[in-house]
Amino acid sequence: MAQLRTYLSRQEAEIHKGNNVHSILRKAESRARVTITLGPTFDEGPTDQHFHLESGARLSFGVNLREANGRCALVAYRFQLNLPESRTSSFYRFDLNREGHPTPLYEPRCHIHPGLEEVRLPFPALTPVEVLDRIFLVIEPELITAQP
Question: Phi/psi at 88 (nearest 5 deg)?
Fold first, then answer.
């Protein structure tokens, strides 16, 4: 939680989009499970709960962790970056599913949706901060330089 809050607070300090990281980043605990969320689980349009980027894109995510024996294990995540309306592709989604799919070639446990719901490209399992790095250091700069 602290890593994600710090990461997003640093991004907000650079872009000044009015994202209140302390209020939009939430944590819920249940037994040995921890869920960290930012924004809606399924994006149905812009809200104040999204993290808004300089390009006009909006970010929401959910991260599920399991605590055991004083350690924490990453169970699953879903990061959704909805692109500005002017883009031909509408979103990128990074998924790490809780379990493998019966047909792993159709749906790898860890994959990215490059703007198409039914397209799942295998992707290495990254930590949540590594996913944010891909969003803020790779995708976002391209969105900014490609703006009309």
Answer: -70, -40
Cβ proximity of 75 and 62 under 8 Å: no
Say how far apart CA 19 and CA 145 lie, in whole Å.
Answer: 22
CA distances to 14, 29, 108, 122, 145 from 94, rounded to whole Å, are 24, 23, 12, 10, 22
Domain boundaries, the chain: 2-145
How far is the C-alpha of 113 from the C-alpha of 96, rounded, in Å?
11
* Poorest-pLDDT segment among 50-54, 58-62, 87-91, 100-104: 100-104
Q: Tell me the whole-structure pTM to 2 decimals.
A: 0.91
Tokens 């446990």: give the residue.
Answer: 109
